[in-house]
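Q: What would this complex look like in 3D?
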Amino acid sequence: MTTPLLSVKNLRVSFRIDRKNTFEALKGVSFDVMPNQTVALVGESGSGKSVTSLAVLGLLPKENSKIDPQSRIDFEGTNLLTLSNSQKRELRGDKISMIFQEPMSSLNPVFTVGYQIKEVLKEHKNLTGDAAQKRAIELLKEVGIPHAEERIDYYPHQMSGGQQQRVMIAMAIACEPKLLIADEPTTALDVTIQKQILDLIAEIQKKHGMSVLFITHDLAVVGDIADRVVVMRNGEIKEQGTTRDVFTNPKDDYTKALLSCRPVVDSRPKRLPVIEDFMAGRADTMRLEQRSRGVKESDPVALEVKGLCKDFYSREGLFGKKTFHAAKDVSFKLRKGKTLGLVGESGSGKTTVGLTVMRLHDATKGEAWFDGKNIFAMSEKEFLPYKKRIQIVFQNPYASLNPRFTVGQILMEPMIIHGIGNGGEDRSKRAFELLAKVGLPEMSFYKYPHEFSGGQRQRIAIARCLTMKPDILICDESVSALDVSVQAQVLNLLQDLQDEFGLSYIFISHDLAVVKYMSDEVMVMSNGDVVEQGDSDELYRAPKHAYTKKLLDSIPTGLHV
Amino acid sequence: MLAYIVRRLWQIVPTMIGVILLIFFLFNVVGGDPAYLLAGKIANPEQIANIRKQLGIDEPYYVQLWIFFKQVVTFNFGASWSTNEAVSSIFATRLPASLMIGIPLIVIETIIAILIALSVAYVRGSLTDRAVMVTCTVAQSISILVYIIVFQYVLAYKFGWFPVQGWGNGIFENLFKYATLPVLIALAVSLAPNIRLYRTFLLDEMNQDYVRTARAKGLTENRVMLVHVLRNSAIPIITNLMIQLPGLLVGLFLIERFFSIPGIGREVILSVERSDFPVIKAITVYVALATMLANLAADLMYKAVDPRVELK
Amino acid sequence: MNTAVMNPSIGIERSPGLWSLAWKRLMADKIAVFSVIVVILFVLLALASFFGIVAKGWNNETAVNYAPPTWFKDSHKPSADLSGKQPTTSGPALDTGLAKPEFVNDRDPLRDTINELKGQLGQSTGSGAVDEIKIVDPLADVIAELKKKLGRKGDEIGSGETVKKLDSLPFGADKWGRDVLDKVIKGTETSLLVGFAAAIIATLIGTVLGAFAGYFGGKIDDALNWFYSIFSSIPYILLVLAIAAVLNKKGVFTVVLILGLTGWSNIFRVVRAEYLKHKGRDYVRAANAIGASNMRRMFVHIFPNISHVVLVQLSIYVVLFIKSEVILSYLGFGVGVDTVSWGSMLNEAQNELILGYWWQLGAATLFMAVLVTAFSLFTDSLRDALDPKLK
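A: Here is my prediction, written as structure tokens for the whole assembly.
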């Protein structure tokens, strides 16, 4: 029996919101991290996982946070909570180091990466001059930065997101720490990069024999790298155990829901089981009922896009203009009542296609045939009656609803603009019906968007589209910003609505599993080009293009048994 | 870089034309006929016609505009209407005094404001922070006139620590004898708003992720604040400084006037009082030009402090 | 947040919008409440003065010359002694060399003549004469003073028909025995009137132009930006003085116009940036998607979301314009002789200070400092309440 490297005992943290109210972020959290072990702290937003990591590092904001005096955080036998500020500071970056979610903003933009790495070396190892330079290059090489000798003089913005995160890792391991805390280190990265970073962390952990506290919202990513999993919800630990136990034999309903509500590529249940389903004990039967997807040549076409191009311009030089081709020669057919999935990494042009199709951007070239007419060739006025028939649900539910409107106003506005319904009474009746349809209580009508959670807001956004009875609904990363359990609920809702109203979806996402789950046909985009398109089952089973293969290989698959 | 400077200089042209048009519109169209003002009530029509001819304001507007335009380009605004002193000579002789007050002011003020802002931003939310902020608000609420009147009365007149007014010839005499109290007063006036401003800039940066990273690296608070935060706050601070710079030439007009310091600002007041249009026009046009050049300089300085800035 | 939705017992009542939440935050802030009360008191005072309820007789010479404030009566020599003495303000000022060089008395009907004189003198003195106007100044004041004495025999003590003049007032009296309290109240009216009116004009212009520039971009933005760059490249105070020189006309209305028409560039920049930011936001795109027209998106959707910025800027403007008006009036380019401004009070007070009569200076400073401080604190709290992210 070895002693734990880090032992968190009964950690309670509360935040002061205003003079009267406090919010208890952690309600007695206890777990251990053994030497040379990777522990994953998994939880959705508000679970308190990041607060835990900041408490370990002593980085909670002093002004408004309070740690319960009974709490203990023992690191190598000393209680970190009783250390003085300068003692804690000496530990940070030396024995315990941390990497964060957003590598771009976590690195100081005005200093070279070399400077920022050498800063740690100087602080803790008193290494300066050539020795520090040599060590910094060594570290950059270790984290897989090519041409480290040159890159050491790069500024963060001259590097890609993946490389920035590698620099963060180099900085974190510079002093050979005993414990590395990784707070959602791959969440902001594209799926292919995510895979590389995960592999790198695992490799470094083994090589240096350090312990890793890996914090994430996504259970799927921890299967490969964690020895133990701690599942948190609302400041409490729901379940903890070895990764294998948690994955294969989860005890807690919440853990079960987390494990199964995320779509996977090799199964397509009719509905995704959510926490309520586990509570009600009907989840297991649900999973058996599968949905079949795919299109037949005889299916009617709702929208046909031919040769869509979209260029953006930026100013350069004295009179120069730089053209950026966001979408190049994109053509597809969207069948009635079916879903076309549009998948790609950031900058692939998938969102541009979505916005251009509904004329939120003007197409540079191309045609879009809808209802026998080319909607790209119409004037703004001619297009207005068609506008309501193609609608969109955006990614960020916090940004897409006007915060100054009540939900009732939000829902009735499109009806007023398009003259749907007879007068206010009829319109509000319709609004109430739609609220019920998307699963929101009636009284939501009188509330403002800020009173709703992300998932609920996305329901409001969907209801707003439904007021116009659209034929086509574009879902632009509509579930990407949501927690997985909420994501499942919204996906279920979208499926239900498709079944009921025969809506055609253009489903845009970076998440391959979600796209697979929702789509009949899939189009893969990269740098503005469509690299592959076809039947979704077919494409996922036998990808033809190398890029598609790479993407599919990068999908985190949970536990490899 | 060079292409950028050329492009920016090129962009100044339309703005300058705009400024010229605006000034022309104000003084030659709205301003009416200054001949009456100049000739006084006793003048007869011939005298007025004569003055109009001398001033060139009997010409049609487009000719007057062309003359004005030529004046701007050739730096030749003729002579002051009231003193006959050449406008160019007014510039040359008044500028040193303004700079003698302005430069020490801006240097001392920036250093003090940044230091105080750093200290209060670091203890944000504390009693000290609040006290300093409230003091700044109150200090800002008192008119500059009161500062001048009271300081001049108490420190110079009553206590005799400083000369009540005047200006000498030697640089050191002016700097250490006559400029001291004016600079002190200007400091009292301008410190408060700048401390508040710089504090916000610093707080903005202190909330950034890289500050958390710096702390996670185990850096000392001094290093976090003085190296990481301050360096990033330099951009808005430089912008603010450069914006203030041209305004400094005329912004100190009240102080220059009270202390009889022969600077540009005092010249503005004098010429406004005397309806001395050529002098106001010249000062306005060139201060506007100075402002645009200062903005360009600020943009060039960004490059030095922020590697992300690309001058394209 | 969720609990409210989940809990049906709350019932259907209009839930708080962002404005009412902001109001709650504002009212939870003690400093904010206090400063709001102070500002409201000042506004009431100004309104009362506007409708002639108070300070109507500010121009009446109710007390003896330089009557001291009641509380400081004993520390000053009886003003009867002073009444005989000619209060030549500029004399001592020149003796000590203290300040006040180029001052023309507002109340002086001979001003035009003096101006002419001045002009001729100026021209004849020739180039390089920086201080020539000083020569004229004492004369102006002496003339004014002489005229006063001649016109107002009733000032002499014991004069039969006139009401006996008070020998002290709560805030003292000025050179002509006018009540400083009345004057400072009248000055409050002027300040608030100018501050608010000019702020509203500047805000209106800046907001509308900024909205169009930011929202439409392209050619409209280029044109408006050009216009903005012209105004922003001339230092504000220089532009104000230049226009004052051109108009050469005094009065509250002129001051409002000058300040309002020159001050819009700040808010233009702010509003333009906000519209640029917001027009790319998803809620505006969503409004576009549901077919809302440009005007609807601009003013129904975006405007309420940036109105807090406008409100804060408006309140910054009020402070700025109050301060500017004081300076303009001090210099004699501001309000005319028919009303009082703190600026013109400061102008008079400057001479009085040398003679030891500090109360007019004190009153104007106190009132202005209290109002502007309260307004600035209110602005800060307003900003915090409307945008809780900033702290």
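A: To summarize the key features: DSSP finds 14 helices and no strands in chain B. Chain B has a mean pLDDT of 84.
Q: Very helpful, thank you.
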